[in-house]
Structures are given as C-alpha cells and as structure tokens.
Design goal:
This protein is mainly alpha-helical. The chain contains 15 helices and 3 strands. The chain has helices at residues 2-18, 22-42, 50-70, 73-78, 80-97, 117-135, 145-162, 167-183, 188-208, 211-221, 232-243, 255-258, 270-303, 307-331, 349-371, and strands spanning 99-101, 104-110, 113-115. Mean pLDDT is 83; it is low at 1-6.
C-alpha cells in the first residue's frame, strides 16, 4: 500500500515537472543570471560579496519556487487566511525585533537571510482577497460587503508598512488591492465612491508622510531644482541612460556606474547601469523578456476556470507588473523615487523571493489547469 502511494505520488510530481512551462522557467533563470552579470559590473569587477550572495539567494528562492509549485491548489486556497494572518504577525514583529537600517525597520533576521515581510505581504494579501471573492461570488455587485471587508484586508498591512517606513511597497500593495477589487465586478457606484474616498484621504496621507518622502515627491515634480541634493538620483540616472545611446558603451565601460555617480546602483537603479552599458537595444531586450512573463500570466488568468486561481493569478501579475512599471518609470524620472527594485535583476533577497513565489503559484495554477 505504501509502495503504491509512493509510486502514485512520484508519477504525479513527475507529471507536474513535465508540464512546467520551460520557456517561462528559462526566462526567470536568464533574468537572475543577467542580474549577477550587471551586479559584477556595478561592483567594479568584484564577485564578492554581492554577486555571490545574489546567486546563493537565487538558488534558495529557486528551491522555494519548486516547493510552491508542487503544493496542491486546494491547500493554498484553504490556508489563504492563515497565510495572511502570519504575514500580518510578521509585520507587527518588525516594530519589536526588526533590523534598524538608516532609521527604518523593514527586515527580520533569519539566519543568512534578512526577510522583508512587506514583500511577502503583497502575496498573502492577493491570496486572501482571491479567497474572499471566490467564497462570496453570490454577493450583489452593489453590496458593501464586496468593498468593506477587502478594504480592511488591504489597509491593515498598508498602515503597518508605511510606518516602517516603506512608502513604495505600501503604495504597490494598495494599488494591487484596488485592481483586485475592480476585477471582482464591483458596481460602478461603489467604484466611484471608493475613488472619491481615497482622494479625500490624500491630504491626510500627505501629513502622515516623513519629510524625506515629501521631498522625493517635490523633487519628482521638479528634479532640476536641486540636482546636487534631492534631485541627484534622477539626474544621474537620466545622464547614464541617455549616454548609453542605442548600442551602449560596452560591458563595464559605463562612466556613470563605474565612477559611482549613480546612487543605489545595486538595487533601485540597476536598470540605469544596464542601459548605460548595453544601450537602448539591450534595454528593449530586457523589457521584452519581462513582457513575455506578463503576457503569460495574464493569459493564465484569463484561461483559468477556477475563480480563486483566476483572481490570484491576476493579483500576483499586477504585483509583478507594478514592480516593473514603477522601477523603470522611476529611473527615467516619470515617477518619484520610492525604492522599488527591478525583479530578479536588482540585488535583494526578499524581492527575489516574492517574485519566485509569485511565479511558483502562477505556474502551479496554470499547470494543474492544463492537467485537469
């Protein structure tokens, strides 16, 4: 009997591996390897410590990806609220045992890995909202139940995150939650009411911001007003991207990055380094790889017959897409600098872990949809 169960499970997992989308899987690995190549250049040709740490963290995240990929969708569905509660608990822990870095507490030390719970909160919120709306499909479109409970689920982690402070991640979480509410089929009256309510909160949120966060927004509106001060990040990033031209200056030949004129070159502004060295041509190729990932995710959501999977895939896709849009828009000066990394290319274990969990879930849902 035990032998039969073992063989049955073995063939089940083998079937899942055979049905994995190897093109998407290869793109994820390619982006992570490209990240290590750019980090090597940004580190001045040094493998230690960033490149080595980046590769080790990716291997760890790849292991987590496989675990998530093999978990049964019913187990994910039934434990969605528990995952959300654990995520909220970890956000609360930040205020007691979180690592202090430059006046902000955003990380929990887990051995060799510093976890940023706010990153994981985006995934847990998505699963909780998908569970809520799939449980209550019968709720009328104009029912306040379709708005009030999800808003509580969204704003609880949002306020915990912006108090760390981490405005960028908070805005991402809020935006993704808003898109999921819209996808649920909310009535037009409630949509308008929600937008008006959020607009009324803007003055309150502005007064709630830290001085450096207000300065970033003001700088975004007029970055040239203080090019050596608060506008330095954007100004140097624009110079790097513009000087790369079409073909780029060549690998490890970027003056802005090699002379360290670009701040945060390993994380937030790694796209500036890539654009300077590989030019517009290289940047387009990177964006195309990301575009393939986004299209795959959206198609997976559209084709899914499981309402929970459909909503979860859409929410996870929005998380990933917002990463891309905000980071690239940030480095070219379209949006304020909010500290959002570029998925898989930027150095940072928590963001990488979130991306790999995201694709582990999406590919899990998609594969089981095909096999069923």
């Amino acid at each position: 009997m035990i032998k039969y169960i073992f063989i049955k499970n073995f063939y089940h997992y083998l079937s899942l591996i055979k049905n994995i989308n190897w093109i998407i899987f290869s793109i994820l690995i390619t982006l992570a390897l490209l990240g290590s190549i750019i980090l090597y250049s940004a580190s001045g040709g040094s493998f230690q410590p960033l490149v080595k740490a980046h590769l080790i963290k990716f291997l760890f995240c790849l292991f987590i990806f496989l675990i998530v990929y093999f978990i049964d969708i019913e187990a994910i569905f039934s434990n969605s609220y528990i995952i959300y509660c654990v995520s909220i608990f970890s956000l609360l822990l930040i205020f007691f045992i979180g690592l202090d870095n430059g006046g902000s507490q955003r990380w929990l030390r887990l051995g060799f890995f510093n976890l940023q719970p706010s990153e994981i909160a985006k995934v847990s919120l998505t699963l909780a909202l998908a569970r809520y709306y799939s449980d209550f499909q019968h709720i009328n479109n104009d029912s306040f139940l379709k708005l009030i409970i999800p808003l509580i689920l969204i704003f609880l982690p949002f306020f915990l995150i912006i108090n760390q402070p981490d405005l960028g991640t908070g805005i991402l979480l809020l935006t993704c939650g808003f898109f999921m509410i819209l996808l649920s089929g909310l009535g037009l009256k409630l949509v308008i009411l929600g937008i008006l309510s959020l607009s009324l909160l803007i003055p309150l949120i502005w007064n709630y911001l830290y001085d450096y966060q207000k300065k970033r927004i003001i700088t975004f509106l007029n970055p040239e007003s203080d090019p050596l001060g608060s506008g330095y990040h954007i100004a140097q990033s624009k110079i790097a991207i513009g000087s790369g031209g079409f073909w780029g200056k060549g690998y490890m030949q970027g003056s802005q990055s090699q002379l360290e004129f670009i701040p945060e070159i390993h994380t937030d502004f790694i796209f500036s380094v890539f654009s300077e060295e590989f030019g517009l041509f290289g940047s387009i190729l990177i964006i195309l790889l990301y575009t393939v990932l986004v299209i795959y995710c959206l198609l997976s959501s559209y084709r899914s017959s499981n309402n929970f999977a459909k909503l979860a895939i859409f929410g996870l896709t929005m998380n990933f897409f917002l990463y891309l849009i905000i980071n690239i828009s940030m480095v070219i000066g379209i949006v304020p600098v909010v500290g959002v990394p570029l998925p898989l290319l930027s150095y940072g274990g928590s963001a990488m872990l979130t991306v790999m969990i995201t694709f582990g879930l999406i590919m899990n849902f998609n594969t089981r949809e095909k096999t069923n």
